[in-house]
Amino acid sequence: MKLNFLPFALVLSLASVFPAFASFSSYGIPDSADVRAELQASWLEAPLAAVRTKDAEVYDDHAGHSFKVWGEDAGSFFKLVVAPKSSMQMDYIKGGETRRLETVAYKEGTAGTWVLYRDAKSGKPSKIRIYFNADSDVYLELRNGENKTFADMVLYNCYMVRSVPLGVRFKKLYSMPFDALQSLTKKSLPWASVNVVPGQYHPVLQMAAVIRSYLPRIVYAQDAAYNEEGKLYSVQLNEPFDLSEEAIRRDPSLEAARHAVDAGSGLVLSAPGFIKWVADGIVEPATGSCTNLGKMVAPTVNYSSLGKKGVIAQSWNLSLTLDCCRNLAVDALNSRLTKRSYTYKMGARDETGVDVTVEPFVSDIVEDGELRSAGYIKDTGYSMTELKSLLYILAVTESQYIYFGAIKSYSQETASASVFNNCAVFLPYFDDNGRFDCIVFEQGKEYTLDAFIDLHGMSYVHLERVKSTDYFHPLYK
């Protein structure tokens, strides 16, 4: 039954948005199947000339819930949007008291939104887009091919699958329930990689909160770390870190580090030193001792002495932060084991399981179309363009893990070579509303994931998995 559509005013200071839900699918999203069946003739299959003149309408699903349908131009397409009603709660201050106001909205991209794309000139149906998660950048597209229907699953501009045949007529999808669609594609589409279950990320968020509380005490100094005895050492030389007057004359930035050491009021850390400090906060409470600085830099990449990189590696450590991240991840793994102790073996197949090597994407969406995914590259990692999508999947499939990431960039000293010269800690999670986020710490500073990717856009990142813990107690100075 169609309802009269009433406009509403938007209120600032948005506190949260959640569906005021209609009939649910087993996936937990409102399902507009009954409504779509009702409006199929008047909207979905009606001539475009007639649809373009129609005002937005609200339809009841016969269970007391409603969806709004409207049309709009979208370049070469004309979109017909069926969106569920969402409740919006906002806090506002009046007379010194904070009050909460609730209103409703129908917004494209809300979980449960169903969108039909028709050719803007001919009116021919082209594709259907279904938003099924809290993140609108995660969606399913069903394309109308020549006598076939194809499915694509998209995650942050990466195709998880592309052109999977469905074996069902395209127009049958107009009224197909979401549960039936999932059942039809349960073996052909990677639902397990996008099925978000909130509430599993307390150890991840606990570690993030502890690290964040220490950030004001961290002073960056290249090559600095605390060894297994808690003494300030050089990472590459494995000897006491030089903060002499002569060292400060050569590098005035060390003055802040010298002040922190003299005052006993701060942590002096380099990029790998920061990763070690995090690893020690995991390992020491479990074993009673910190990670070994000398073992941290043990080589994990075997460069041929006759190759170009092998010659350069004789003068420069091209894999320093990768070695550190791998070895520290193995130390964290060993701290949880009682019957076996692992070592990362250079040049051999990784038997520890710390390397992230999954390849969940077939291609990336780019401005000119799509580009085949490079996936995982041995001893290099992943393109930064796929990092957000990758961490999303890891947050779903490995819900209590964090990741040490070694960043590979072009070397300033040897422009023809790429080098692992930086590293970061990634803490991915889903909030209580099922929205993805990832906290990033690099060189003692916090970044959003988007800001981090913008900063390192042309680099690669190699990820090492580390189990998070509520018993995280890093060194305090």
Number of helices: 12
- First-residue to last-residue Cα separation: 67 Å
SS content category: alpha+beta
Residue windows where pLDDT falls under 50 for at least 5 positions:
1-22, 306-315
Radius of gyration: 27 Å
Instruction: Please outline the major beta sheet.
Output: 13 strands, antiparallel
What overall form do the CA principal axes indicate? elongated
Number-wise, the strands total 23
Helix percent reads 10-25%
The average pLDDT score comes to 89
The proportion of residues in beta strands is 25-35%
What brief labels describe this structure?
alpha+beta, 6-stranded antiparallel sheet, 477 residues, disordered N terminus, 13-stranded antiparallel sheet
Commentary on this structure:
The chain has 477 residues and is an alpha+beta fold. It is 24% helix and 31% strand. It has helices at residues 33-44, 48-52, 178-184, 202-214, 245-250, 254-263, 271-287, 293-296, 308-313, 320-334, 387-397, 449-455; strands at 2-3, 14-19, 57-60, 66-74, 77-94, 97-106, 114-119, 125-131, 138-144, 149-155, 158-165, 218-220, 224-226, 232-234, 267-269, 363-366, 369-372, 382-383, 401-410, 418-430, 436-442, 445-448, 460-467. A hairpin with a 2-residue loop joins strand 16 and strand 17. The longest helix is centred in the middle third of the chain and has 17 residues, at 271-287. The protein starts with a strand and ends in a 10-residue tail after the last strand. 40% of the residues are buried. Residues 1-22 and 306-315 have low confidence and may be disordered.
